[in-house]
Amino acid sequence: MKTLIQGCENAQQFEILLKLTSISSQAKKDALRAYLVDGLPAKRAYARYGVTQQHFSEALATLNQKADLAMQYAALQKTKAENNFDELREKIIKAKQNGGYQPILMNHQYQTPPGDD
Predict the structure, then answer these.
(1) Residue at 60 is within a domain
(2) Which is it for the CA torsion 44, 50, 53, 57, positive or negative?
(3) Please, which residues have CB within 8 angstroms of residue 51's CB and are 6 or more apart in sequence?
(4) CA-to-CA distance for 19 and 16, rounded, in angstroms?
(5) What is the average pLDDT score of the chain?
(6) Which residue of 12, 34, 68, 83 could cross-link 45, Cys pair, CB 3.0 to 4.6 Å?
């Protein structure tokens, strides 16, 4: 899957994605950065840093795979947060429908929960 777009990637996000890979060649990293962050055409990027077209393409494919996984993870996290929010909202609505917080019985006396003063 082609997730990353030439010249449209944020430098900080690019660096984080690189950390998810085993790409160790500084020349490959520089060529990828020139292509994805700076917008240099692929052929010029890999030629400038002395990387073969094959090695550049393999590194780019690896980076795209990691970006795709990161996007899937972020989408799941967003869904989880939305579900937690919806669940909390439902609890609040039910509590309000039932008259708010119910008093807590302590020593046979009704007291409001802490923080409800």
Answers:
(1) yes
(2) negative
(3) 25, 27, 28, 31, 59
(4) 5
(5) 86
(6) 34
